[in-house]
Design goal:
6-stranded antiparallel β-sheet; single chain; 249 residues
Amino acid sequence: MNIALPALVVFALLLPGFIARSRIKRAERSSLDYSPFGQIVTEAVLWAGGLHLLWLALAALFFGRHVQPTLLLGLVVSDAAAQARSISNLASELSWIAAYFGSLFAFAYGAPALIRAAIIRWRLDRAGAPLSPLLRFHAAPWYYLLTGADFPPGEEPDCIVVSAIVNISGRPWIYMGILDDFFLDPEGRLDRMVLEKVMRRPLDADKQPSTQADEELARFYVVDGDYFVLRYAETVTLNVEYIKLRPAA
């Protein structure tokens, strides 16, 4: 009995599911996936089952090829003779088997990325959308917050203004600017934001100015430079404002 053969067969059957699952997800974590093992396997098995059903239906419709369950079972049973007979019968079908799995692996790699692009393009995952519970990328909270992806098509913000409180030498300052881009660390945590047209002022200047000096401090001062990199680890609080420009009346 070839013990490795059943494991290899099961691995080949489930691999398209794992590929499709990983390709369709928009996860902010680029390090090891810490999802529960049972959840990963369940999702992969469901994906693999759906892909195989689709591919078997297409093979029967266009090529007249049908799966032979007895041969498949013969590969995974513990009977060495049954394994040998199945291998012998499948030897003449190697080109079809290679074409089946090769095309299926390619589809499992490419199709989910196209599905994900369609979901993002038409905002099918936005909060409140009918299919949002099914299609939403739950592992990407910063994506929704910092891109305005929860707005319906046509109502997306023209710009996103970020205000952050940063402690400098023990004194809190407010930095405000237009968000240009943001970056995450390998664990999916917000690492830094790139801002444009940044202004700043001391936080304690929020109080009502009583003197000329207080009024000067209450103003925002422009930070020179084209881009300002704000590290999230150095911020105390973060405020996000979505701005939609309206044509003048």
